[in-house]
Write a structure and sequence with these properties.
It is built from 2 helices and 4 strands. The chain is of the alpha+beta class.
């Protein structure tokens, strides 16, 4: 299919263990990132939904977190720049080319 919607799921292990809010064990955790993007030809993408969780390796209990905390823990934005902005950048480039073609050189 030339266009559609795709789900991406990524996991990032934490470098430390912490007490789980659900089972109460001090265990390792990881951050799970799920996001959905619309794609046009698999090249131009636009993220339409995202969610972030900290999951316990012992009980698989999850605690939802926001993007700011996920970025802080991981050290970078877990959603790639390309996935977020490639469609918008392509539209801007096409609009710029259209404007340049309207200019008359005298």
């Amino acid at each position: 299919m030339f266009f559609g919607i795709k789900l991406i799921s990524k996991e990032y292990p934490l470098d430390y263990s912490k007490v789980c809010q659900i089972c109460g064990y001090n265990s390792s955790h990881f951050i799970k990132v799920n996001y959905i993007y619309f794609h046009f030809g698999f090249m131009l993408r636009f993220v339409i939904s995202s969610e972030f969780f900290i999951l316990c390796n012992t009980c698989t209990g999850e605690e939802e977190i926001d993007l700011k905390l996920a970025k802080e823990i991981i050290g970078k934005n877990p959603i790639s720049f390309y996935d977020k902005y490639s469609l918008a950048i392509a539209i801007l480039i096409i609009a710029s080319i259209g404007k340049l073609s309207e200019l008359k050189i005298t």
